[in-house]
Design goal:
heterodimer, A: alpha/beta, Rossmann fold, Dihydrodipicolinate Reductase, domain 2, 2 domains, nine-stranded mixed β-sheet, 35% helix, B: mainly beta, Jelly Rolls, two-stranded antiparallel sheet, 1 helix
């Protein structure tokens, strides 16, 4: 447990005094308060459990949200990730403690309201359930668990304790996605009858995560927390029993959107995949996955393709919903978003005037007169855009939704029931690859 | 005009142009500076980049930068200080230890908002290029990057600004006209134009992912 920092570099301090003129303002006021407008009733005391890369993303997003007070951080990598989160929060003026063991944190921190769980997937169930049993609300990163049994434990604990649990499918709170679901698809029916979905998350080849060799976690600590060695700790997403591989890390976010926008979970999945590129000894989960889901909606059958590859970043990540009157390409990456009208569909003028979509720019509508039309291809439709500009950190609205739900001012956008439904759909993809056959879902599988 | 003569004429023209932009001595033999590049490493999910005046990616390796023969990295291992003398993670000495790897354990993370570092080259040198790697594990853009050289440690004497993309002068060092850029494993090379100086200072004010300031390496090429 860290109580205070120390610094013994006297030479640097002395040299710094010589140059104090330029930096004095910063040195004298190193603590930046983010909650200048704080009110006692709105303050929430929060702990961050898991301060790795995802934990840091969530922490940085929280720093943009008023009235959130970090009281504790907990991570088994004391010499690096734990120290990093602790020191960062101190610089923002948070008064907090740091822990290696979350049970010690729960025992000692008596004024917490909520815990943000950003540990490896195989710890989610234990951490989330124990936090709820301690009376705390939980924001749990997706996937809820690496097993359905673990996910069920979270659902049951939430119901038993009455605590709020937000699962980290942050697109559920993204204003662009909410606009598309509520206004563009549900109300306006702009796409017509949705028949097919195409989505992907393609990434370049990436080296394994390393670590500073002089700051490795002792083997005894690694084993205590379920890791065989430091490499496994740093690259847990690739290991069976710890994570779920790219289809879970990446695909889960987008397959969640498929079910949301279609108002129903899938009825079957067929998938192909394998560890084709990386060393299977250190990449146990599939580095390449191509999956096709089938949905039975109120409007008919929808077939949805999804691919995640980790050897080429072509086209990045997006989801495209295709209907008989239009197509919507949506992504967290704002530059990829567009809505495209089929040439045979009625004019969209009314939807433009109602602010559902923004008309293509005059520049985009200009026809290149020198172009030679290849009559074998359909002419590309002009790109409509969305009327929303969203520049906040991706996770901020989802965290705000969680915090405001605790305050009784909002309703969770991704409660455990939704998180569980998505976990069932996503974890089955790995099963389908292994089984080498189509797997049908029993409708009851999605509910507890 | 034969082909050989044309080539000589072209090379002479390019050299004349180059020398016209720099104050290098006319008799200096120019050779490419040797910059050891780290492995490229973009990991994780990049955030939206709705950033004013953002350079487009070059799409190819940077052209060799020519400097007088004998030019070397003068910053390596020299004394370096920071406005944040208690970094969030990493040590200040990492900034000029020659290691440009982007992985955890190779960068120093300074506190939020405006911060700067100052390198003392121990004596005045003729400087030709400054190359900075803030953080290239993700395609990030750092804000208010201002790079200056001066004759004294407090930056009161003969201060010269070599790069400034603080377009709205929010850091108070004067409004810059340089564009924002995306961090890559190549680092950002700033032409120092042969300025003579002992002290080099690099300012920044957070990045498009968070408010923090990072340095993996800073190399100062001169002789």
């Amino acid at each position: 447990m860290i109580k205070k920092d120390s610094n013994t570099n006297i030479d640097r301090r002395n040299f710094l005094k010589l140059t104090a003129a330029a930096g004095a303002g910063i040195i004298l006021s190193p603590y930046i308060k983010t909650n200048a407008q704080s009110s006692v009733t709105n303050d929430l005391n929060v702990a961050l459990l898991g301060t790795g890369s995802q934990g840091q993303v969530l922490m940085n997003a929280c720093l943009k949200i008023p009235n959130i007070k970090f009281k504790a951080v907990c991570d088994i990598w004391q010499d690096y990730n734990q120290k990093r989160a602790y020191r960062l929060l101190k610089k923002y003026g948070h008064e907090l403690n740091a822990y290696e063991d979350y049970r010690e944190m729960l025992a000692k921190e008596k004024d917490l309201d909520a815990v943000i769980v950003a540990t490896p997937d195989f710890w989610h169930a234990k951490h989330a359930v124990d936090c709820m049993e301690a009376g705390l609300h939980v924001y749990c990163e997706k996937e809820m668990s690496n097993t359905l049994e673990g996910a069920r434990q979270i659902v049951n604990a939430a119901r038993r304790t009455g605590r709020l649990v937000q699962i980290g499918h942050q697109r559920r709170s993204n204003p662009n996605y909410i606009h598309c679901y509520n206004n563009l698809i549900q109300d306006a029916g702009l796409l017509g009858k949705i028949t097919t979905i195409n989505g992907q998350w393609n990434r370049s080849v990436q080296p394994d995560n390393g670590w500073p060799k002089n700051k490795a976690i002792p083997n005894s600590v690694l084993r205590k927390y379920g890791f065989k060695n430091m490499n496994q700790h740093r690259n847990w997403r690739w290991y069976k029993g710890l994570g779920g591989g790219p289809i879970v890390d990446l695909g889960s976010h987008q397959i969640d959107i498929y079910s949301w926008f279609l108002n129903t979970p899938p009825v079957s999945v067929i998938a192909s995949g394998g560890t084709d590129y990386y060393d299977p000894a250190t990449h146990e989960w599939y580095d390449t996955v191509l999956a096709t889901f089938k949905y039975k909606t109120d409007h008919g059958i929808v077939r949805a393709f999804y691919q995640t590859i980790t050897t080429n970043s072509n086209q990045g990540y997006f989801e495209t919903f295709m209907g008989d009157q239009g197509a919507l390409t949506i992504s967290e990456s704002a530059g990829r978003v567009g809505v495209f009208k089929e040439a045979t569909a009625p004019a969209w003028d009314q939807w433009v005037s109602k602010g559902i979509v923004v008309a293509p720019s005059e520049e985009a509508k200009k026809v290149e007169t020198k172009a030679i039309l290849d009559v074998r291809e359909t002419v590309a439709p002009p790109k409509h855009t969305l009327p929303i500009e969203f520049n906040d950190p991706y996770h901020k609205p989802h965290l705000e939704n969680f915090f405001n739900s605790i305050r009784g001012k909002d309703k969770l956008n991704c409660p455990v029931e939704i998180g569980y439904e998505t976990a069932v759909a996503v974890l089955k993809v790995n099963e389908a690859i292994k089984a080498k056959r189509e797997i049908r879902f029993n409708k009851n599988e999605f509910h507890i | 005009m034969n082909k050989k003569f044309s080539v000589i004429l072209l090379v002479s023209f390019i050299c004349t142009l180059f020398l016209a932009q720099n104050s290098y001595s006319q008799d200096a033999k120019l050779v490419p500076i040797n910059i050891d590049l780290p492995k490229s490493m973009f990991v994780g999910t990049p955030t939206n980049m709705n950033i004013e005046k953002l350079e487009k990616p070059l799409g190819k390796p940077r052209a060799p930068f020519l400097a007088p023969e004998g030019t070397k990295n003068l910053a390596l291992g020299k004394q370096i200080i920071s406005t944040d003398d208690m970094p969030i993670i990493g040590e200040i000495e990492m900034i000029n230890d020659g290691d440009k790897d982007a992985d955890d354990g190779y960068f120093v993370e300074l506190g939020p908002f405006s911060q700067h570092i100052t390198i003392d080259l121990e004596k005045a040198y003729e400087l030709y290029a400054i190359v900075v790697w803030h953080f290239h594990k993700q395609p990030r853009v750092y804000f208010d990057v201002v790079i200056q050289v001066a004759d004294d440690a407090d930056f009161t004497k003969n201060v010269r600004t070599l790069f400034n993309n603080d377009l709205d002068n929010s850091s108070g060092l004067g409004a810059g006209t340089d564009w924002h850029y995306v961090e890559t494993a190549e680092g950002k090379l700033i032409d120092a134009k042969g300025e003579k100086a002992r002290y080099v200072r690099l300012h920044s004010k957070g990045n498009n992912s968070n408010d923090l300031n990072h340095y993996i390496e800073v190399a100062v090429y001169g002789k």
